[in-house]
UniProtKB/TrEMBL annotation:
PANTHER family: GTPASE DER. This is GTPase Der. It comes from Propionigenium maris DSM 9537. Residues 3-168, 176-351 form the EngA-type G domain. Signal peptide: none annotated. GTP 2 binds at residues 182-189, 229-233, 294-297. Associates with the 50S ribosomal subunit. NCBIfam families: GTPase_EngA (TIGR03594), small_GTP (TIGR00231). CDD domains: EngA1, EngA2. GTP 1 binds at residues 9-16, 56-60, 119-122. It comes from the Bacteria. GO terms for molecular function: GTP binding; ribosome binding.
Length: 437
């Protein structure tokens, strides 16, 4: 689990500029699958060997001052709860504003490292005197920077990574980590309660009091699971956008820690934009996913309801065509235990390795059935393939002209691999390379 560094501050201080300068071109786009909702809210980055996840708190629409004030305060609260290190951005040209003071007040309440970044210091000597006021905000680390001119960013990053390295890494408990992700009210906590209330379950601990996410460790017949819930999102904030931001940030954290993601939908409501967004994060993080349609007890069923809903879900989530769908009721316990078995199975798929011999048999047959298309008069010849890693399963296909192998052909190979080897619930990565590289 990489540490999270959140960028906080009022509008127009230069948060986005800074975010973009810091993540640079390191933006990892997995592929151009349609339907994946992407946002530039967070990126993984690295400084001198220390990796972290940088989170931008996103643009706020300045409607009126009161509204703005409450939104910014909420953002600061979220950052305070979720992030490991906070970058609090202020504007040297504007000086200390009332809003800055409000944010500072929130950020000082807890004992997390806050780096006060005084931005727009384009000319240090000329602006030196403007900096003094900012000490009044009460933070130990004050860094004058210019996001636009990239000045002093190295020193700032040094301070950030120093603080990251001081963090005590939490010991993770043993067991298969299942992240239960989804919109507020989908029934995530109900599922956790249901599973931990089962007669056969040995519930050994409830941890996570310092953070809002709650881990429940349960054991069934010697199999251990850690259920990572993201409860309590809804009640804290009433404003739509910040709720969105809040749950996304939560989801990111939870997903990154997870071995398997259970994407929970409310069967009565069907799929929403927010569900798709959360699904998109799990997809981009290359985690195994099981789609869980909850509240099945309350869904009015006609003939083929399950089939229709399945079709509809795959249509709405085309990038998750590999994810199995389970219809459950956290309320009655219908099929909830099966979720655990299913998660075990999917994780087994995620971590398995295919021998090079078997793999090449399948690839060879696939290329005979459907040869790579000739492009620009050149013939693509696939030499051989190998699985280079698992979790997620990653394959390299060696051939003479990797750049000519089209995405759709890789998709074809992926489907053949799935037909032969399963990989249920798992994303698969296939890369092409020339033989002598
Ligand atoms: N002079 C100067 N201007 C800067 C610097 N960094 C950012 N700006 C400018 O400040 C303005 C606001 O920058 P943004 O990055 O959009 O600010 P933001 O905090 O993300 O704003 P919101 O998206 O509204 O929250 C832009 O016009 C930037 O060009 C800097 O280091 N020096
Ligand atoms: N009928 C029915 N209701 C359910 C089921 N599961 C949960 N509910 C109800 O749905 C509501 C929300 O359930 P929660 O478990 O609090 O949902 P959550 O996803 O944890 O919500 P947040 O904590 O806001 O993220 C509650 O009123 C539950 O009783 C189910 O399987 N069937």
């Amino acid at each position: 689990m990489k540490p999270i560094v959140a960028i906080v501050g009022r509008p127009n201080v230069g948060k986005s500029t800074l975010f973009n300068k810091l993540v640079g071109d390191r933006v990892a786009i997995v592929d151009d699958q349609p339907g994946v909702t992407r946002d530039r809210l967070y990126r993984e980055t690295e400084w001198c060997g220390t990796e972290f996840v940088l989170v931008d708190t996103g643009g706020l629409e300045p409607r009126n001052n009161d509204f703005m004030m409450s939104k910014i305060k909420q953002q600061a609260e979220v950052a305070m709860n979720e992030a490991d290190v906070i970058m609090f951005i202020v504007d040297a040209k504007a000086g200390v504003t009332a809003l800055d003071e409000e944010v500072a007040y929130i950020l000082r309440k807890k004992n997390k490292p806050v780096i006060l970044c005084v931005n727009k210091v384009d000319d240090f000597l000329a602006q030196q005197d403007d900096l003094y006021d900012f000490w009044s905000l009460g933070f130990e680390h004050l860094m004058p920077i210019s996001a636009e001119h990239k000045s002093n960013l190295g020193d700032m990053l040094d301070v950030i990574t120093e603080n990251i390295n001081k963090l005590e890494l939490q010991e993770e408990e043993e067991g298969l980590k299942l992240a239960i992700i989804g919109r507020p009210n989908a029934g995530k906590s109900s599922l956790v309660n249901r599973l931990s209330g089962e007669e056969r379950a040995i519930v050994s601990s409830m941890a996570g009091t310092t953070r809002d996410a709650i881990d429940t460790s349960i054991e069934f017949d010697d199999n251990k699971y850690i259920l990572i819930d993201t409860a309590g999102i809804r009640r804290k904030s009433k404003v739509e956008e910040s709720l969105e931001y809040y749950s996304v940030l939560r989801a990111i954290k939870t997903i990154k820690r997870a071995d398997v993601c259970l994407l929970m939908l409310d069967g009565q409501e069907g799929i929403t934009e927010q569900d798709k967004r959360i699904a998109g994060i799990a997809y981009e993080e290359r985690k195994p996913i099981i789609v869980v349609v909850n509240k099945w007890d309350a869904v009015e069923k006609e003939t083929m309801t399950m089939k229709h809903m399945t079709d509809e879900l795959y249509e709405e989530l085309p990038f998750l065509s590999y994810a199995p769908i389970e219809f459950v009721s956290a309320l009655t316990g219908q099929r909830t235990l099966r979720l655990l078995e299913h998660a075990d199975l999917v994780y087994g798929e995620y971590t398995k390795r295919i021998s090079t011999g078997l793999l090449n048999g399948v690839i060879k047959e696939a290329t005979i059935m459907n040869a790579p298309p000739t492009r620009k008069g050149r013939l693509v010849k696939i030499n051989y393939a190998t699985q280079v890693s698992s979790a997620p399963p990653k394959f390299v296909v060696f051939c003479n002209y990797p750049e000519l192998v089209h995405f759709s052909y890789l998709r074809y190979l992926e489907n053949r691999l799935r037909e032969s080897f399963g990989f249920e619930g798992c994303p698969i990565d296939i890369m092409t390379q020339t033989k002598n590289r």
